[in-house]
Amino acid sequence: MLLLRGLVKDWIQQNMFKFEISISKKRIYLFVFFFLVLSPQYVFASEKLNYIAPAVIPSTHQDMQRPGFWISKHPSADAVILTASEVGSFNQELIKAGLIKDLFNIDAFDLHRSNGQIQSQLKKFERGDYFDRNGKPATREFFRQIKNNINHEENQDIVLRFAFVLRQSDQRLLPTTDILTAEPFDIEFDQVQNSSLDVGEGLVVFAETLDGKWVYTQTVASAGWMKKDNLEFVSSDEFKIMTSSEKFAVVTSAKADLYRDFARTKFYDTVRMGARFPINNLTADSVEIFIAPARRVFISRRDINIGFLHYSPRVIMEQAFKMLNAPYGWGGVHGEQDCSAFLKQIFATVGINMPRNSGEQGQVGKLLGSQGQIKLLESAKPGITIAQLKGHIVLYLGMVDGRPYAIHEVYAYRENVDGKDRPRILNRVVVSDFDLGKGSKKGSLLERIVSIREIR
User: Fold this and answer.
1) Rounded to whole angstroms, how far apart are CA atoms 246 and 265?
2) d(CA 118, CA 282)
3) What's the rounded Cα separation, in Å, for the pair 29 and 12?
4) Per-residue pLDDT band at 219 (split at 50, 70, 90)
5) Are 266 and 253 part of one and the same domain?
6) Do both 139 and 74 map to the same domain?
7) Backbone φ, ψ for residue 131 (5° rounding)
8) Considering only CA atoms, which of 80, 89, 231, 207 is closest in space to residue 149?
9) Is 27 a residue whose pLDDT tops 80?
């Protein structure tokens, strides 16, 4: 549409005084038409011209789209990296480092800090330049209403509560479904969106809005506002029994459907890879699972594993490739995942509780180096190594002809065209080399590396 508008504009400039039309034998100039086309308020002004990336990403080929290609190059693809008990110890270290939360050990400090987070998040949006869905600047009245809903005396008396998610839900930085973008009409990147939680996920509730519609929640990996009616509140004992059950199922498909009946004919909701549920009963085809103490649903046996998968490079790469071409979703919007959620879901299948965002994930595991040097990747172990970039994170797959490769969830990369950056939209999980983006102002993946770490 923008291209069409440009062509019309050029034609008008050359033929402004020549273009006439006869209606009822009267000749009139189409100044009204010209005004509409050239006006900055015309509907085209809200559209953005994007360039789609080629189906085959530069420097890749068909075989690279299969996990077997990378597994066959691995010297020890089936080596157990961490045993089940070692995974448990690994998670405890992440808790001690403050990268994830132990929901059974929430204290007064956590309550005080949550209140500080609520206030700092609100101030960040109030002081920033943000735009609504229609591209208009967010108003003071918009923030005033949110502030009044958050800051009320009742919040001081709210007791710590436990709950489970009843339906796939967004976790927000403000108690609102309205979006705020950093640029006008950049609606794919809602800055209020923090994360997205699956059915059955357990959490702690710290605070509630004055209207009773929103609660401030803390999961193992993230904190934010959620709609209250998407949760089922339970006692601390019920919460502990559910989350510490020794007989549980882990979702190993990219996505799995939940049903209300054993025959799996009445759809309930969808869950993503890594979701964990206590098991009530199972057959060869269906598994009855708990999503809350008194709520049971059914899932296909082929979508789950009984207990965690063992942690090996093969398992991680096979799980990662199950999500190849999965759509990108900033903060988990639309039930999808961004780059850090992609890694979080993969490692959850082996029991590792990765932090929610890429910056914190870049602090997990054994540090190999902090610069984008190929020699660091050459010595890294494929399938268990992650590379944190500025604003991004990837899973390292290995070397081919001296080039390092990764699999990652990515929205776009940039290329240099006549001295200017041009984005190429990927909007999916892809395999690429680390030269992706080379020559752009943002730089290649390799040039943007902040840290390289083995998850062990």
Assistant:
1) 29
2) 42
3) 12
4) very high
5) yes
6) no
7) -125, 150
8) 207
9) no
Query: Counting runs of H as helices and runs of E as strands, what totals does the chain give?
Result: 11, 23
| pLDDT tens profile 377-410 | 988 999 999 999 999 999 999 999 999 999 999 9
Task: Kindly state whether residues 381 and 289 are assigned to the same domain.
Answer: no
Give this prediction's pTM. 0.88
- The residues pairing with 394 across neighbouring beta strands, listed in sequence order, are 387
Instruction: Give 109's pLDDT tier (boundaries 50, 70, 90).
Output: low
What is the token pair recorded at 255? 């996505």
Cα–Cα distances in angstroms (integers) from residue 269 to residues 193, 257, 294, 317, 345, in the given order: 21, 6, 17, 27, 18
Indicate whether 88 belongs to any domain: no
Instruction: Report yes or no on 90 lying in a domain.
Output: no
79 pLDDT band (50/70/90 cuts)?
Answer: very high
Q: What angle do CA 181, 231, 273 make, to 5 degrees?
A: 70
User: Rounded to an integer, what distance in angstroms lies between the CA atom of residue 94 and that of residue 363?
Assistant: 9
293-343: pLDDT as tens digits: 999 999 999 999 999 999 999 999 999 999 999 999 999 999 999 999 999
The parent domain of residue 271 ranges over 246-306
Question: What's the total number of domains in the chain?
Answer: 4
Q: Please state the rounded mean pLDDT for residues 156-164.
A: 80
Helix (H, G, I), strand (E, B) or coil at 331: helix
The whole-angstrom separation of Cα 371 and Cα 373 is 6
Whether 326 and 423 map to the same domain: the answer is yes
pLDDT tens, 362-382? 999 999 998 667 888 988 999
The predicted structure's pLDDT at residue 157: 56
**Six-digit token string for 264:** 């799996």
CA distance 34 to 16: 9
Tokens at residue 305, please? 């594993």
Residue 4, pLDDT > 70, answer no
In this structure, the answer to whether residues 78 and 191 fall within a common structural domain is: no
Whichever domain contains 206, its CATH number is: 2.30.30.40
Distances in Å between the Cα of 421 and the Cα atoms of 424, 437, 447 are: 10, 10, 16
- Identify the helix (H) or strand (E) that includes residue 347: helix 339-348
pLDDT of residue 13: 44
pLDDT band of 205, cuts 50, 70, 90: very high
CA distances in angstroms from 105 to 204, 220, 335, 400, 438, listed in the order given: 11, 11, 29, 46, 46
Same domain, 261 and 342: no
DSSP annotation of 337 reads B
